[in-house]
C-alpha cells in the first residue's frame, strides 16, 4: 500500500473528468476537488439561460460519472494554494491534501480586461447560477415590458446586448432572437416582435474569429435575418447598470451579457511559473509544468502549442483530449514505466449554432451551413453529454422545440431583489 500512488485532480470539467476516466482501472487513489461537485456541459449553458433546457439536462454529479472506482474521493471545496516542493494542495478551509501526481484543470473565467466592476452589470456564462440569473433577467424584462403602455419607456426592457462575437455570443444572440421575436410572443399582447432589439457587439472585424471568413459572413447574415444587429469593430468603453457605452454612442438596457474572452483561473498564479497574457500556464510538450514533471495543467488553464506553433484554443475538445492524454500518460508511467509522449491535438473541426435549424460548421476543411450543419451540431453535442438520461431528455426537448417553437423552462423564482413593480396606470 505504501507504493499506491495518489493522484489529485483539481476541476471536474471536461479535462478533469476525462483524466479520471483514463485512470479509473488503474490501481491508484484519486481525489477530485471541485467547487460544485458536478460535471457541467458548458457548451449548452446558453440553452439553460434562454429557457430551452433545465440545469439537470446538462449537469451530472461527479460521483455518478466515476462510480464504482475504488479509492475515488470527491472533495467539495476550493483550492487556495499549491506547494510544488512538498507535494500538497491547501483548501480555503485550511485542509491540506498530499499528492504524488497533480492534474490542474480548473477551467477559466470571463476576462473583463481590467474592468471588473462591469461584471455586476454584464454577467458572463460559466456556471448554472449564471445561466439561471440570465434566464430570469430575460423573462423579467419581458414581463416588465408587458406592464408598460408607452413604447418609448418599454424600449430598454425589450433591448438585449451580447458583448463578444465568439461561439457563445453568436449562439446566445440567436437564442434570444428566437425568444424575443417568435417563441414567446404569443404570451404577450402589449408589444410586438418588431419592438425587440438584439445587438451582438464585437470589437474585432468579424464574428466567429476562428472560423473561415465565408462561414463568419454566413453566420452574420443569418443573425441579421433573425433580427440581430451585428456591430463589428465596436469596442465597449463602459458599462453601468442600464447602459452600454461605445466610442460613438451608447445603448440603454438592463439586459447586458458578457461573452468577450476568458482568463485562466487565478490559481495558476500560485505555481509561480511562466504564463501567457491571459494567465494560462506555459506547459511542456507532455502538458507538465517546467521543472515539475508530476504536475500537469490541462484545458483552459494550459498554454499549449500546436504543430504550427499556435496556442490551442480554450475549447472543450482540447480539454477532453488533454485529459485523456494525461490520464494515459500517468497510467503507463505507473504500470510500465513507459517514456512520456508529447500531446498531439487532433482538430476535428468547429461548429456553432445560430438558431432553430441554423448553424455553421468547419470540419477539416469542409464547410457547411444551414440545416445540415445544425444536425451535425446537435448530434455532436448530444454524443458528448454524459449519461443516457441526459442525452434522451435533451433530444426530446430539442425535437419539441423544433416542432412547436415552444421553450419548456420559463419559470421565474420568487426573488425579492428581482421584484418588478407594475408601471401601468
What does the model show?
This protein is an alpha/beta fold. The chain folds into 2 domains: 6-35 and 77-110 and 262-335, FAD/NAD(P)-binding domain (3-Layer(bba) Sandwich), CATH 3.50.50; 116-260 and 349-410, 3-Layer(bba) Sandwich (FAD/NAD(P)-binding domain). 29% of the residues lie in helices and 24% in strands. It is built from 10 helices and 25 strands. It has helices at 14-22, 45-49, 62-65, 128-146, 151-154, 167-183, 213-225, 316-335, 371-384, 388-404; strands spanning 6-10, 29-34, 38-40, 59-61, 72-76, 79-83, 88-91, 96-98, 101-104, 108-110, 159-163, 197-201, 228-231, 236-240, 243-246, 249-252, 256-258, 262-264, 281-282, 288-289, 292-297, 302-303, 350-355, 358-363, 366-369. The chain has a 6-stranded mixed beta sheet with strand order 5-2-1-9-21-20, covered by helices on one side. It has a 4-stranded parallel beta sheet with strand order 13-12-11-17. The chain has a 3-stranded antiparallel beta sheet with strand order 6-7-8, with no helix packed on it. Helix 6 (167-183) links the parallel strand 11 and strand 12. The longest helix has 20 residues, at 316-335. It is globular. The N and C termini lie far apart (76 Å). The model is unreliable at 415-425 (pLDDT under 50).
Amino acid at each position: 500500500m505504501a507504493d499506491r500512488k495518489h493522484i489529485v485532480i483539481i476541476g471536474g470539467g471536461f479535462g478533469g473528468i476525462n483524466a479520471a476516466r483514463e485512470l479509473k482501472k488503474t490501481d491508484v487513489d484519486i481525489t477530485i476537488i471541485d467547487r460544485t461537485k458536478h460535471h457541467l456541459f458548458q457548451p449548452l449553458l446558453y440553452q439553460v439561460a434562454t429557457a430551452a433546457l433545465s440545469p439537470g439536462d446538462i449537469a451530472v454529479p461527479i460521483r455518478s460519472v466515476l462510480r464504482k472506482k475504488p479509492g475515488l474521493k470527491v472533495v467539495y471545496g476550493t483550492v487556495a494554494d499549491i506547494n510544488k516542493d512538498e507535494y500538497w494542495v491547501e483548501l480555503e478551509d485550511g485542509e491540506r491534501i498530499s499528492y504524488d501526481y497533480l492534474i490542474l484543470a480548473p477551467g477559466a473565467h470571463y476576462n473583463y480586461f481590467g474592468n471588473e466592476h462591469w461584471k455586476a452589470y454584464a454577467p458572463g456564462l460559466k456556471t448554472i447560477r449564471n445561466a439561471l440569473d440570465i434566464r430570469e433577467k430575460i423573462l423579467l424584462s419581458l414581463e416588465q415590458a408587458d406592464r408598460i403602455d408607452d413604447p418609448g419607456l418599454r424600449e430598454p426592457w425589450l433591448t438585449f446586448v451580447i458583448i463578444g462575437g465568439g461561439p457563445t455570443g453568436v449562439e446566445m444572440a440567436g437564442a434570444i432572437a428566437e425568444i424575443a421575436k417568435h417563441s414567446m410572443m404569443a404570451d404577450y399582447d402589449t408589444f410586438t416582435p418588431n419592438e425587440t432589439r438584439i445587438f451582438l457587439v464585437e470589437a474585432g472585424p468579424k464574428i466567429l474569429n476562428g472560423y473561415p471568413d465565408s462561414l463568419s459572413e454566413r453566420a452574420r447574415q443569418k443573425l441579421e435575418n433573425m433580427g440581430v444587429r451585428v456591430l463589428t469593430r465596436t469596442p465597449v468603453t463602459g458599462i453601468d447598470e442600464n447602459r452600454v457605452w461605445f466610442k460613438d454612442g451608447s445603448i440603454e438596457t438592463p439586459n447586458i451579457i458578457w461573452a468577450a474572452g476568458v482568463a485562466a483561473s487565478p490559481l495558476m498564479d500560485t505555481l509561480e511559473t511562466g504564463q501567457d497574457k491571459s494567465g494560462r500556464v506555459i506547459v511542456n510538450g507532455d502538458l507538465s509544468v517546467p521543472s515539475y514533471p508530476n504536475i500537469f495543467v490541462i484545458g483552459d488553464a494550459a498554454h499549449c502549442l500546436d504543430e504550427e506553433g499556435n496556442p490551442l484554443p480554450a475549447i472543450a475538445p482540447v480539454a477532453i483530449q488533454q485529459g485523456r492524454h494525461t490520464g494515459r500518460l500517468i497510467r503507463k508511467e505507473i504500470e510500465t514505466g513507459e517514456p512520456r509522449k508529447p500531446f498531439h491535438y487532433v482538430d476535428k473541426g468547429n461548429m456553432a449554432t445560430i438558431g432553430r435549424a441554423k448553424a455553421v460548421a468547419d470540419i477539416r476543411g469542409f464547410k457547411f451551413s444551414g440545416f445540415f450543419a445544425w444536425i451535425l451540431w446537435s448530434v455532436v453535442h448530444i454524443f458528448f453529454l454524459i449519461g443516457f438520461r441526459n442525452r434522451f431528455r435533451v433530444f426530446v426537448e430539442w425535437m419539441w422545440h423544433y416542432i412547436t417553437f415552444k421553450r419548456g423552462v420559463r419559470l421565474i423564482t420568487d426573488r425579492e431583489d428581482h421584484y418588478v413593480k407594475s408601471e401601468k396606470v
